[in-house]
From TrEMBL:
It comes from Candidatus Jidaibacter acanthamoebae. InterPro entries: ATPase_dyneun-rel_AAA, CbbQ/NirQ/NorQ/GpvN, P-loop_NTPase. The keyword Ligase applies. Pfam families: AAA_5. This is Aerobic cobaltochelatase subunit CobS. Residues 56-178 form the ATPase dynein-related AAA domain. Its EC number is 6.6.1.2. It is an enzyme of class 6 (ligase). The gene is cobS_2. One of its GO terms (molecular function) is cobaltochelatase activity. Keywords: Ligase. The keyword Transit peptide does not apply.
Length: 299
């Protein structure tokens, strides 16, 4: 795949010099979201990953747009992407590959079927590892090979070593920074081996958007809903997030939650019932009065 030089200002709202962009799209290039609002610090970190082959780890609250940030940068660079989710059930053989038995001319033949990592490693692909802090130890040590300076992958099953393609890139996203989850909000996450965490060249934190930016995004995506209503939704989300930071409540409202709430509201035309369906009914019953109070302040 051929790359061309483009000015970063033509793709983003800040100057990062010249960028390399593939001249054509493949089926693995994410769809461009024209409404997407980029966080400058996070975008700079991701661009360094693409431009200089650095390993980038992004942490932050759920729904803050960590994975979509990488995908939307890749979309503008025409860079193919693959996302895998370390949900605790992903095994080493699923990542690396396994021996399979096939029939050829009536005979059973054993052949090695490569997993997602060897396939991605050989191509100009950005590999995004979601829920990085939920991976099993055996899986994490497979990934650790990719974080070495040369990034080569040793396949013991094949007695072979795979050298990464010059345009292979790796990113990870997680809700924690790898030190465990003291809040209890992200059950199932694990502490990350510090020797492995040190191998990530860049670690950046992505927080929720400022209220004015969040409102701007919602207004673009939800043009059928009055802006005053969206503004009150954003204000409520801010109150809930502040209450979470203060330790008063245990569930916070993400931008994803607001979008879901707005979609249900558009169907029901009932702001309170749609709030209950989309958010309140999953909250601790002992804390519901706090969320109700926040709601009444905004509506």
């Amino acid at each position: 795949m051929e790359q061309i030089k483009v000015d970063s200002k033509s793709l983003f709202d800040f100057d990062f010099g010249e960028l390399n962009k593939f001249s054509s799209k493949s089926d693995l290039v994410p769809e461009t979201d024209d409404c997407y609002v980029f966080d400058e610090n996070t975008t700079r970190a991701i661009l360094m990953g693409f431009e200089h082959n650095l390993k980038v780890f992004i942490n932050g609250y759920h729904g803050s747009g960590k994975s979509s940030h990488v995908e939307q940068v890749a979309a503008r660079l025409n860079w193919p992407c693959i996302r895998i989710n370390l949900d605790g059930h992903i095994t080493r053989t699923e990542l690396i590959g396994r021996d399979t038995i096939t029939l050829s001319e009536g005979k059973q033949i054993t052949s090695f079927q490569e997993g997602i990592i060897p396939l991605a490693l050989k191509q100009p692909i950005a590999l995004i590892i979601d829920e990085y802090d939920a991976g099993r130890p055996d899986v994490m040590f497979v990934i650790q090979q990719l974080l070495e300076a040369n990034g080569k992958l040793t396949l013991l099953e094949q007695n072979s070593v795979i050298k990464p393609h010059k345009h292979f890139r790796i990113f990870a996203t997680a809700n924690t920074i790898g030190l465990g989850d003291p809040t209890g909000l992200y059950h199932g996450t694990n502490p990350i081996n510090q020797a492995q965490l040190d191998r990530w060249n860049i670690i950046t934190n992505l927080d929720f958007m400022p209220p004015d930016k969040e409102l701007e995004v919602l207004a673009l995506k939800l043009s059928d809903i009055p802006k005053d209503t969206l503004k009150s939704m954003v204000t409520l989300a801010q109150l809930i997030r502040q209450g979470f930071i203060n330790g008063d409540i245990t569930i916070l409202m993400s931008t994803r939650n607001i979008l879901n709430w707005a979609q249900i509201y558009f169907i029901l035309k009932d702001i309170k019932l749609s709030f209950d369906y989309s958010f309140l009914n999953k909250c601790d019953i002992l804390e519901k009065h706090i969320y109700e109070e926040f709601f009444n302040k905004c509506f």
